[in-house]
């Protein structure tokens, strides 16, 4: 188990949610337009996050880190496949096709990079958390750009092409980062500083986006649909508890189980709302799911990290 101060993790989460409140305030005061969250999301996914990923791999090669990264990748494959199957059965009674697809997408895809990466950095140390988290997100990106898009746009237009799973900023930056990590050379200082500076924008921007997304919703819409409470019970409480239980059952401990539990405890991905709108699915339901699960994570995320740290 990595040595970290749980209070430091809680403090990091508190700081992130303070930034979220800044985004909420800016959107409420109309400092940010309705199109700003989507524009910032595109900037983050295509520019700042790839820079952060590449710069996080600029370290001396260590076989143990690479081994752990590959184990994390294998665990991520298993988790995503299992959640896809569980979600199919869990939401089988949601009869409206668009709602069914949104619930299944939001259950499967978590906010691994926007919220997961900064939490992992607080647990494992600056850069190391992103390094390990990137291996987890390889499967997230591959699955998101194939199964995820196919799920939301089912019956509408052309199917997603296989190359979209590989030719996308997240996977591309990971490939470049791994090549940098495996090479005997390090990035030139000026290039590293530029990539690191741009990458450092990722965490605050991601929280501003989430805050602006929450500000776009009426509070009543977040609390009026009982199905959202049932969803959050399954996604935000039952899922991380099951993950901890499985790790405990097989006597697993160390970095990998803690990372997997953390990734299972983060809220639904903001891409649920963005993709649902792009592919003409139920974007309002997706936004409400993202909003309520994010609010729940203020309490549940630090609670499950502390629980995992105590029992694993």
The gist of it:
This protein has 312 residues and is mostly helical. The chain has helices at residues 6-28, 36-56, 63-90, 97-108, 112-124, 128-152, 169-182, 189-199, 202-215, 219-223, 226-249, 255-265, 271-278, 283-311. Helix 2 (36-56) packs antiparallel against helix 8 (189-199) and helix 13 runs antiparallel to helix 14 (283-311).
Sum up the structure in keywords:
0% strand, 312 residues, Na+/H+ antiporter like fold, mainly alpha
Per-chain topology:
Elements: H1 6-28, H2 36-56, H3 63-90, H4 97-108, H5 112-124, H6 128-152, H7 169-182, H8 189-199, H9 202-215, H10 219-223, H11 226-249, H12 255-265, H13 271-278, H14 283-311
Helix pairs in contact: 1-5, 1-9, 1-14, 2-7, 2-8, 2-9, 3-4, 3-6, 3-12, 4-14, 5-6, 5-9, 5-12, 11-12, 11-14, 12-14, 13-14
By DSSP, the count of extended strands is: 0
C-alpha Rg, in Å?
19 Å
How far apart the termini lie comes to: 8 Å
Return the CATH class: Mainly Alpha
Order of helices and strands: HHHHHHHHHHHHHH
Strand content: under 5%
Total helical segments: 14
Can you put this structure into words, describing what you see?
The chain has 312 residues and is an all-alpha fold. The protein has a single domain, classed as Up-down Bundle (Na+/H+ antiporter like fold). The chain contains 14 helices and no strands. Helix 5 packs antiparallel against helix 12 and helix 11 runs parallel beside helix 14.
